[in-house]
Please model this.
Amino acid sequence: MSLRRILLMMVVGLMAVSLGWASGAGESGDGEDPVYIGVSAPLTGDFAANGEYIRTGVLYGQEVINSNGGLRGRPVELIIEDSKGDPTEGVLIAQRFAQNEDIVAVVGDFSSSVSMAAAEIYNQAGIVQISPTASHPDYTKIGEYIFRAGATQTAEGPFLARWAVEDLDIDSIATVYINSDWGVVANRYFVEEAERLGAEVTNQESYITGDKDFQATITKIRRADPEMVFLAMPWADAGAIIGQMGQVGYLPTLMGPGQLSTEDLIAMTGDYSEGLRANAQYFREDTRAVSQNFTSGYEDMFGELPHDHAALAYDALMLVANAVEDVGFDRDAIRDALADTESYEGVTGGIEFDENRDPIKEFVKIQIIDQRWTVAEN
Model:
C-alpha cells in the first residue's frame, strides 16, 4: 500500500473519530437522535484497499446527506466495523448489527464470501443488507432482505467475454482466478461465454488468497501461448502477476473485471499494464451531473479520484437513504421501499431492482492508455 494511501486512511480515521462517524455512541449537535447505518468492510487484511474504497465512499455519502439536512431531519451516523475479509468475522459483525435496534440497515461487505455468510444473519433478523460489490449470483437468493448495488458475474463475465471474442477477435485465452466464491464464478461465466463464442481456453489457473509468486503459472500459460490472459482477481494480485510477467518479458493482451480499474494498479505495474482492458460501472468521464458532482466532491474530500468500488458504496448508502427518506425508520418498510426503487439515478448509472433484488446495470469499456484509465479504443 502506498504511503499516500496509508496517510489518507489515517486522516479519514481521525475524521471519523472527531465527527462521530465510526461509532454508534452520542447524539447530533442539534439534539436530534442520529439515524444509524451499519457498514461492514475489510479494513485490514488482504482486501484492505478494497475496504478502504468502501469506507471512503460511504463517508462521502454521509457528508452529502448530512450537509443537506440529514434524513427526515436527523443526521446519519455510520457504525463502521472491520470484517478483515473473513466470513467468520463478518458473521460476528452481522450478529451485533442485527441485535442493535438503532441500526436501520447495513452496507457491506466487500467480498461475496463474507457477504453471503453474513446475509444469513441479516435476512433472519429482518434487516436490509446491501453489498456494494458482492457479485456471486447466489448472494441475493439468500433472502428478501438481501440486496446489491453492483452487477452480478452472470452479467459481467459474459460482457467481457463478448468484448474479447466478438469485438477484439481473440481466438485463444488463458485465465487466472482467485479460488474464492467470487473468483470461481467470475472465471466460470467468462469461460463459458468465451467458449460458446468459439474461443479456445488454453488454461484455467487458480491460486489462493495470500499467494504472491505467480512464476509457475506464468510459465504454464506462456507455454500455451494464448492471445489473451484474463485475470479474475483483486487488483493487488493482478498487479503482482502483471509485474512478474513484465519482468520475464511476457506481455500478452490483458483483460479483467472492474475490480482492476484502479490507479494503484498502474502505479504498481508501470508500463507492464499498458493496454489492460476492464469494465466499469462508474467512470470519471461520465458527463451526467450526478456522476460529475460525485467525482469532484470525493476528490475534494480525499485528494484522489474515486475507484469503481467507492462509487458503488456511495450508491448503496444513498439507496438506503432514499428508502429511509420515503418511509421512515422501520426495517421492514425500508426493505419494501428499497425493493420498489424505480429509475434511481446513481453515480454508477440508473438503478432499479429486478425480482431478485439485483440491479440492472450497464458497463463502460475502459483501458489503460498512456498510463491512465480511459474509455477503451476498441
In short: Residues 282 and 297 are 15 Å apart (CA to CA). The mean pLDDT is 91. The two ends are 31 Å apart (CA to CA). DSSP finds twelve helices and 14 strands in the chain.
